[in-house]
Amino acid sequence: MVEQFIFIAMLAVGIGLFVGRIRKIRRNIFLGRPQTINDRKAERWKTMARVALGQSKMVVRPLAGFFHILIYVGFVLINIEVLEILLDGITGSHRIFAPFLGGFYVVAIGFFEVLALLVMLACIVFLVRRLAGIPARLSSNQVKGWAHTDAMLILGIELVLMSALLLMNAAEGAMPNASVAPFLVSGFICPWLSGLSEPTLHLIERTAWWFHAAGILAFLNYLPFSKHFHIALAFPNVWYSKLEPKGKFFNHEAVKKEVELMMNPAADPYAAPTEGAEPIKFGAKDVVDLSWKQLLDAYSCTECGRCSSECPAHQTGKLLSPRKIMMDTRDRLEEVGRNIDTHGVGHSDGKSLLGDFITEEELWACTTCNACTQACPVNIDPLSIIMDLRRELVLEQSKAPGSLTAMFNNVENNGAPWPFSPADRGNWRNGSTT
Ligand code: SF4
Ligand code: SF4
């Protein structure tokens, strides 16, 4: 009974903290501009099934994709055993599913143990890969420091949790009067424990059980602070992803409205703005100027670097890295969220995404080729953020590289990007060079 009480209290605290963090992430995401995305629902479900559930973009790099799928499938299915642990903890029972499943129970747990072993194998492969810095995208400067520690921590935690699961089953299987037969994988550990007394085996089993249960709750609460939260966010992020051809740019509503007013001869150019209307803003200077979907993108980034490894600007040594764009957006959004927690809504720290996190040089290095959006395994669109930050530079701050400014002036004065007036544009037919 005491054990039950402690378990329920631990569960309540663990879930309470988790829900609190999720609420903050949700609040942060919806600091972004409203954007309505609810069209072509059938296509969205199909895309989510293919890209998020089926991991179709992960297997483009087959080896990493294979091991990632092992971890993913193992992680999802082993949660069935975790469900049993939770129910045992709440009800004070032991292996609550065993009486219902009979002989199939041993088969099911054996299957989960095989999965646990495969997850451990994949974690070791990824740990070695990270330590060896292979491929290069995993050892670049952007993923040094906390990003590296985070990746190593999560792999280590998974290894420890899987080991606790196997040890728990092995200790029980090694007991002379075990209620269940030794399982498929942990059965191989049983002989090593067979010399121990029953109370010692019981202590090992209980310790591993509690360690596993507490570890899962700790893991649950660590996830939303880690890039590994993509386990959950990949699904909505893919569902809401852009279905139009990648090269299609959206008309900026504010720009469209302005142009429509300019083209409408009946419109009053000096009309006062409607009372209470939001001031029109072109582009994005800070995270709150981006849409909620762009902010969801930032929280969904796995920091895998596939986008940067495909980016022609990044490959040729330019400052731009689409992965950094996403990491910076998330870091800035977290900072804005912390400011709200401390000082309330409306407080300004005088910083912004553009300038303090992302520089103009990075933005103008982008060729808008969309290789990053194509490569991203969770359909993130770094280019849309780059374009909105550029719009801020051009439309709000009148800042653009010299070559673009010349082109803009030509479009304004000559109706074309060339430095010729419309009247002179055909002069080349007469042999003229001007
Ligand atoms: S669209 Fe820009 S950021 Fe993305 S891959 Fe191309 S150059 Fe790089
Ligand atoms: S944007 Fe996509 S491809 Fe790039 S690091 Fe994030 S998850 Fe990986």
Short recap of the structure:
With 434 residues, the chain is mainly alpha-helical. 61% of the residues lie in helices and 0% in strands. The chain has 2 domains: 2-30 and 61-239, Up-down Bundle (Fumarate Reductase Cytochrome B subunit), CATH 1.20.950; 253-269 and 276-422, Orthogonal Bundle (Fumarate Reductase Iron-sulfur Protein, Chain B, domain 2), CATH 1.10.1060.
The number of E-state strands comes to: 0
Q: What is Rg?
A: 28 Å
Tell me the strand percentage band. Answer: under 5%
What is the CATH-assigned architecture of the largest domain?
Answer: Up-down Bundle
Q: What's the N-to-C terminus distance? A: 94 Å
User: How many H/I helices?
Assistant: 19
Average pLDDT number? 91
> CATH class of the largest domain, please?
Mainly Alpha
Shape: elongated
Description of the molecule:
The chain has helices at residues 2-29, 41-53, 62-91, 98-101, 103-132, 146-173, 190-193, 198-222, 230-239, 253-263, 292-300, 306-310, 312-315, 322-343, 353-357, 360-364, 371-375, 382-396, 402-414. It has 434 residues and is mostly helical. The longest helix is centred in the N-terminal third of the chain and has 30 residues, at 62-91. The model has no long low-confidence stretch (mean pLDDT 91). Residues 301-307, 322-323, 326, 375-376, 378, 380, 382 line the site of one iron/sulfur cluster (SF4).
